[in-house]
UniProtKB/TrEMBL annotation:
Organism of this sequence: Brasilonema sennae CENA114
UniProt lineage: Bacteria, Bacillati, Cyanobacteriota, Cyanophyceae, Nostocales
Function: F(1)F(0) ATP synthase produces ATP from ADP in the presence of a proton or sodium gradient. F-type ATPases consist of two structural domains, F(1) containing the extramembraneous catalytic core and F(0) containing the membrane proton channel, linked together by a central stalk and a peripheral stalk. During catalysis, ATP synthesis in the catalytic domain of F(1) is coupled via a rotary mechanism of the central stalk subunits to proton translocation. This protein is part of the stalk that links CF(0) to CF(1). It either transmits conformational changes from CF(0) to CF(1) or is implicated in proton conduction.
Family as reported in the entry's similarity comment: Belongs to the ATPase delta chain family.
Protein name as annotated: ATP synthase subunit delta
Cell compartment(s), UniProt: Cellular thylakoid membrane; Membrane
Chief localisation class: membrane
One GO term describing the cellular component: plasma membrane-derived thylakoid membrane
Protein keywords: ATP synthesis, CF(1), Hydrogen ion transport, Ion transport, Membrane, Thylakoid, Transport
TM segment ranges: none
NCBIfam families: ATP_synt_delta
Membrane topology of this protein: Peripheral membrane protein
InterPro entries in the cross-refs: ATP_synth_OSCP/delta_N_sf, ATPase_OSCP/d_CS, ATPase_OSCP/dsu
A single GO molecular function term of this UniProt record: proton-transporting ATP synthase activity, rotational mechanism
Amino acid sequence: MKSNIAMAEISQPYAQALMSVAQSKNLTDQFGEDVRSLLSLLSESEQLKNFLENPFVSLDDKKGVINRVLGDGANAYFRNFLLLLVDRRRISLLEPVLQQYLVLLRQLKQIALAEVISAVPLTEEQQQSVKDKVIALTKAREVELETKIDPELIGGVIIKVGSQVIDASLRGQLRRISLRLSGS
């Protein structure tokens, strides 16, 4: 737990610095797309993540890989930020920094993040219904859904927004019925 708190403490200023650059250059949305792409790549490639976090890999090798991963079309400010993380030996904090940037971006744009867990994939209509309910609940301008599938739910959904949890799953309903019956 201390490790996560320490990581958050160290990554916060870097995320704020990235947001500051993005705002000054009017690139917050573009950086948001770049951040999401890089996070997706890191989640798909354990090898890349291990390479960047390995303290025995030279800084020049890490910079070379970052330049190849980003390609020629990447924003120069974003590229320089990542290279700065390498120079400061903070590239191991890349994921927490990028996650924190997305948190700051959501705050700036008044976007609520809703984690939706369902037994089966939701249709577009169901996703829009969830978004509408979350907007009514949070008064946010928009809602970003992060969907997960859990067949053990049997049916229904669980929606998590910040610290609030709405359990509308069959598993949750059965658990509540069981608690009522055992309490009587």
